[in-house]
Amino acid sequence: MNNMPHYEEQYLSLMRQIWENGSVQRDRTGVGTKALFGATMRFSLADDAIPLLTTKRVYWKTAAREMLWFLTGNTNIRPLLEQKVKIWTDWPLDRYRRETGADISQDDFEQRIVEDTAFAEKWGDLGPVYGAQWVNWPRYEAAENGLFRRAAKGIDQVSLLVECLKNNPGSRRHIIEGWNVAELDQMALPPCHKTYQFHVADGVLSCILFQRSCDLGLGFAFNAFSAALLTRMLASVCGYQAGELIWQGGDVHLYLNHAPLVEEQLSRTPSGAPKLKLLRLADSIFDYRIEDFEVVDYQPQSHISAPVAV
Ligand SMILES: Nc1nc(=O)c2c([nH]1)NC[C@@H]1CN(c3ccc(C(=O)N[C@@H](CCC(=O)O)C(=O)O)cc3)CN21
Ligand SMILES: O=c1ccn([C@H]2C[C@H](O)[C@@H](COP(=O)(O)O)O2)c(=O)[nH]1
């Protein structure tokens, strides 16, 4: 064993700092948070290292399925539910209950989305969130009489990024941006992990993720894993090694009703060095499948459940 602090110590010390010194905020959800503004964590991605939390089990396949769904450009929760991924159900369900007054259970709502195509189209869409902006950022072109119309195909930031990483590695413009100001009001939630910037140095690809708002108890574990996975997929299709994930948070918070999670997690000690294996080199960033990913040497402590603030 070496004497380097475990990568997860950064996470636990940020959690402790927020819990002890964060400012109490009345937030949008009404739950209330303790928050701190501005934080950075750095995680190595070299030699298949992956920033998975070890002080609780993280269902990384859920996060990987979500990332693959972003890359398809789909914004409907139906393909997620078909894979039993339920992390986005609360928002459409909330809207359905509000707009119809129906008293439907989450299970029944999810089943209806999977079985009824028309229902899924009407009630399962999140609006132009991540995937829509990543691979189909809307463009407008001049039409008759000085009017404009939406072009059939939007801008595929992901494909452009791959080309740019391969052909112009020294660029300082390797960015995927989710914050489309003109469409924020149509989104179920404005993007949290809003800006990804990549950097190539000596054949090594690194990523900075800027996350404007971070639910440190629940969302972070997914966001860090997903960003690392995206970096690994990009490195692989571009022929680079993966270097580092630098995570930067704006409003980083702990929901006040996460006290049991926070206290339990802060009592635990991180251990081990999980690795993410990409089992196949895909032809394109869009060709990866969940079966292509394997995590080894991951022996986390038990899962800690916590309520999600809607
Ligand atoms: N308050 C809040 N926190 C979030 O992290 C979050 C949102 N809202 N809204 C949009 C998405 C949805 N995300 C979510 C939602 C739920 C879980 C969650 O419940 N995770 C559990 C179980 C995961 C599973 O079933 O696989 C966990 O313990 O990690 C995680 C991320 C991330 N985002
Ligand atoms: O990927 C995600 C998505 C969402 N979150 C969290 C951060 C906040 O707690 C809420 C979003 O609420 P806003 O009022 O829009 O900030 O969801 C996350 O951590 N990661």
UniProtKB/TrEMBL annotation:
Domain Thymidylate synthase/dCMP hydroxymethylase: from-to ranges: 9-310
Active site: C192
Signal peptide start-end: none
UniProt key word Secreted: no
The protein's Enzyme Commission number: 2.1.1.45
GO molecular function: thymidylate synthase activity
Compartmental location: Cytoplasm
Domain of life: Bacteria
A Gene Ontology term for the protein's cellular component: cytosol
Keywords: Cytoplasm, Methyltransferase, Nucleotide biosynthesis, Transferase
Binding site for dUMP: R28, R172, R173, R212, S213, C214, D215, N223, H253, L254, Y255
Function summary: Catalyzes the reductive methylation of 2'-deoxyuridine-5'-monophosphate (dUMP) to 2'-deoxythymidine-5'-monophosphate (dTMP) while utilizing 5,10-methylenetetrahydrofolate (mTHF) as the methyl donor and reductant in the reaction, yielding dihydrofolate (DHF) as a by-product. This enzymatic reaction provides an intracellular de novo source of dTMP, an essential precursor for DNA biosynthesis.
Subunit-level organization: Homodimer.
Similarity comment text for this entry: Belongs to the thymidylate synthase family. Bacterial-type ThyA subfamily.
PANTHER family recorded: THYMIDYLATE SYNTHASE 1 (PTHR11548)
Name recorded for this polypeptide: Thymidylate synthase
Lineage of the species this protein comes from: Bacteria, Pseudomonadati, Pseudomonadota, Alphaproteobacteria, Sphingomonadales
